Write the structure tokens for this entry.
Amino acid sequence: MSKPTIYDVAREAGVSIATVSKVLNHNGRISDKTRQKVTRIMEQLNYQPSMVASALTSQRTGTIGLMIPDIANPFFAEAARHFEDHAQQAGNDLVICSTDRDDTKAERYISSLLRKRVDGLIIASHTGPPERVARLLTDRIPTVLFSADIRSLACNSVTIDDYQGGYEATKYLLSLGHRRLGIISDSLSGSRLREQGFIEALTEAGLQPDESECMIQTSATLENGRIAARTMLSIPTDRRPTAIFACNDLLAIGVLQEASYVGLDVPRDLSVVGFDNTLLADICHPSLTSIAQPLRDMTRQSMQQLMDCIADPDAAKDKVLIQPELVIRQSTGPAPD
């Protein structure tokens, strides 16, 4: 028995082939009643559309590329899950590429995704050199930056106000009476903005960060968080930080682990604040005070930007800046006497 075709679906549903195509591609103005009827007929006939044929006729493949710097980081793992949900709701498949912040690897992934004719790209956090994104825009590849922005380019982006997040985290620690503060950051652009917010809050309080011992930049892993904390916590007690702001939750939990290892009580002896408010922040012990990024809303807006760009590559580009929120848990408390 031959496989059912789009012509069979159209005949059984009593609609045109164009209407069936619109249902398949999730576009066009069709009533819910007609859409449901066509969908029911496709299910009854067990109709499987040809993706190759669809791509040739509509110039779309129904696939989207997502490039993230580190799938092992819970922030990006959670973001990828939300992106997958949003993509499927829009009738698309998602191809996830983890670049490990390796620019050569990122270039290979972009080339591979473009050969596969993805309809658009979402680049998360680590954008690489601005020229890379500029080239995609020049080639009219629908592209959205997530948790990152390149201010010099007219590109779609959705990001948290990283500077304000770092500022609020530091102001909160200062309000608890802490005057010796450390910061552990990573190499991502957002982390550098969080560091600037940290410095601004200290400066307003008349304090100067110790750049030699209490400002450490490293890559975002639990072990690196522990190593950085080990350096800070080995400083003589009269100069040792009583609070540490880590620019993501992975680093912050590394700090919690090292504090426990050296016998410090959190938050009695040391307060710790993270950034991202991932699932780990709730389940670690003590639970982690963190700056929250509304991931579901941010990923939803990013996906909508991409869908709009795919539909109209010449549409005006939009830079969305979302305000952060401090979520207070057990890892912070008053400065020790």
Notes: The first strand starts at residue 63 and ends at 68. The mean pLDDT is 90. The two ends are 83 Å apart (CA to CA). The CA atoms of residues 71 and 77 lie 5 Å apart.
